[in-house]
Design a protein that fits this description.
Number of strands: 12
Low-confidence stretches: none
CATH architecture of the largest domain: 3-Layer(aba) Sandwich
CATH class of the largest domain: Alpha Beta
Helix content: 25-40%
Strand order of the largest sheet: 2-1-3-5-6-4
Strand content: 15-25%
Order of helices and strands: EHEHEHEHEEHEHEHEEEHEHH
CATH superfamily of the largest domain: NAD(P)-binding Rossmann-like Domain
Mean pLDDT: 95
Distance between the termini: 36 Å
Largest sheet: 6 strands, mixed
Radius of gyration: 19 Å
């Protein structure tokens, strides 16, 4: 019998994770079955327990359950990886035969790997702007800081939230780390700009000054699958040299989860290329 894995979400039918992990399993010769599970609201913890009784070995967690998964892994008998604890959210669960649950967060590692390995854009010494101060931003902050940028600015519509997040992560920063409102970005320029807000979900543009896109910069939107987002459109119009959506991050965070579960890192290049071709054709 193949080992059982799943992704929990609400909604979840759109998820590419079953296909991604099926291809990883075929590539590495691993006997596993991976499925999407729609979890009712509320009902996450019960769904996890039911999955474990069915023999589930591991799971991915998507919206809106990442914070609930974090709280589950905080409970006695369970464990959080350091990066999950810093992120305050869990997107990967590994179930121990002894009954414990390990919670991890692979989002930030997936983002950094996509930028540096797939896009060939080194983050060391760069001026980074992270737009947003919610869970998505928090989940990628630690890996970004570990790449030793020259500075990292968190900007949000509500400046206080950005400043609070910067203060929380200041002990991990070896570079200047600050929080600001979007209006405070006037006159500044950045080499890497990451949209971690919900604006692209709503097909909305952010009020960003054009000069923040430095010559040769990379503009990266965590959203994927909806064509060119308003953020990427604005970046292109202001002359940004490199544009990317979050599809590569999705594949790379999945590879990181696969490594946690199976002890093998699959090759992502061919799969990501096929998904890009399909995305363009669609």
């Amino acid at each position: 019998m193949p080992d059982l894995y799943a992704v929990f979400g609400h909604p979840v039918a759109h998820s590419k994770s079953p296909r991604i992990h099926a291809e990883f399993a075929a590539q590495t010769g691993q006997a596993l079955h991976y499925e999407a599970r729609l979890v009712p609201l509320p009902g996450f913890v019960d769904a996890v327990r039911q999955f474990v009784t069915e023999g589930g070995r591991g799971a991915n967690v998507t919206v809106p359950f990442k914070e609930e998964a974090f709280r589950l892994c905080e409970s006695p008998g369970n464990t959080l990886t350091p990066r999950a604890r810093q992120a305050g959210a869990v997107n990967t669960l590994k179930f121990s035969p002894q009954g414990g649950i390990l919670g991890d967060n692979t989002d930030g590692a997936g983002l950094v790997r996509d930028m540096e390995t797939n896009l060939g854009f080194s983050l060391a010494g760069r001026r980074i702007l992270l737009l947003g101060a919610g869970g998505a931003a928090r989940g990628v902050l630690t890996p970004l800081l570990e790449r030793q940028p020259s500075q990292l600015t968190i900007a949000n519509r509500t400046a206080a939230k950005a400043k609070t997040l910067a203060t929380a992560f200041a002990p991990l920063a070896a570079c200047p780390l600050s929080g600001a409102g979007l209006e405070d970005l006037v006159g500044q320029a950045f080499d890497v700009l990451i949209n971690a807000t919900a604006a692209s979900l709503e097909n909305a543009a952010l009020p960003l000054p054009a000069e923040i896109f430095a010559p040769g910069c990379l503009a990266y939107d965590l959203m994927y699958g909806k064509g060119e987002t308003p953020f990427l459109r604005q970046a292109r119009h202001t002359g940004a040299a490199h544009l990317a959506d979050g599809l590569g991050m999705l594949v790379e965070q999945a590879a990181e989860a696969f490594l946690l579960w199976r002890g093998l890192r699959p090759d992502t290049h061919a799969l990501l290329h096929r998904l890009r071709v399909e995305q363009t054709a669609g």
